[in-house]
Design a protein that fits this description.
about 210 residues; alpha/beta; two-stranded antiparallel sheet; about 50% helix; binds BIS(adenosine)-5'-pentaphosphate; binds magnesium ion
Length: about 210
């Protein structure tokens, strides 16, 4: 039986980097609301049109819309044995809705992994982030270089411009950070220092604190 895990941390803390690897090795799905929104944006769906303004300005998509999408996703068969939520919840109302939704099914979040990285490090990381549009793999020109043969096809995220990164950090501190205490009160919070070490070391730190 896998775990039901949420990844917490500022934009650029490494939630996606770690969640992809954890999901692969644990054999459970990685569910990123940011990835879902960006896929809809790229494909020009009605949802994509609805969320574009929020993503490009670094604001949060409204809670109810986001929660409905996640609730739908969690009811799919591949979520029966656990999953890793990345970028959700990111407000107290979202966290409370998730708790209520799971309680209705006799379930709960078993681990909230909080990757802690200071703001100073975030801006440098995000300006050097690149991703593979085909596989979704995330790289960093400075800290996690991509294989040279795919360098030409890599893309940069629209919201990684410095002014948008500042807006995302502000949104994070005002609206998302309080849910760290929420999961603390539920007794499932796992704090992981996320700076001054590469992705492999951070991954080891996460495995060290996750329940068996
Ligand atoms: P989302 O896609 O979730 O973005 P985010 O939270 O801003 O987080 P990031 O994806 O930027 O960072 P990450 O922590 O995943 O870091 P990564 O692993 O890539 O959300 C985007 C937008 O969608 C939001 O602004 C909002 O509008 C909307 N949205 C999404 N969910 C929502 C919700 N629930 N409610 C409302 N709105 C929502 O790593 C970053 C970089 O650092 C990479 O280049 C990586 O290679 C590098 N790196 C990783 N680890 C290390 C390390 N240890 N050392 C050095 N570099 C590292
Ligand atoms: Mg991410």
């Amino acid at each position: 039986m896998g775990l039901r895990i949420v990844m917490l941390g500022a934009p650029g803390a490494g939630k996606g980097t770690q969640a992809v690897r954890m999901a692969q090795e644990m054999g459970i799905p990685h569910i990123s609301t940011g990835d879902i929104f960006r896929k809809n944006l790229r494909e020009g769906t009605p949802l994509g049109t609805q969320v574009q303004g929020y993503l490009n300005s670094g604001a949060l998509v409204p809670d109810q819309l986001t929660c409905d999408i996640v609730a739908d996703r969690l009811q799919q068969a591949d979520c029966a044995n656990g999953y890793i939520l990345d970028g959700f919840p990111r407000s107290l109302p979202q966290a409370e809705m998730l708790t209520r939704f799971l309680a209705g099914r006799g379930e709960k979040i078993e681990a909230a992994v909080n990757i802690d990285v200071p703001d100073e490090e975030i801006v440098g990381r995000l300006s050097a982030r690149r991703s593979d549009p085909d596989t979704g793999a995330v790289y960093n020109l400075k800290f996690n270089p991509p294989p040279p043969e795919i360098a030409d096809k890599l893309i940069q995220r629209e919201d990684d411009k410095p002014e948008t990164v500042q807006a995302r950090l502000k949104t994070y501190h005002e609206t998302t950070e309080p849910i760290i205490a929420y999961y603390g009160e539920q007794g499932v919070l796992l704090n992981v220092p996320g700076s001054n070490a590469g992705p492999d070391e951070i991954y080891r730190r996460i495995l060290d604190v996750l329940p068996a």
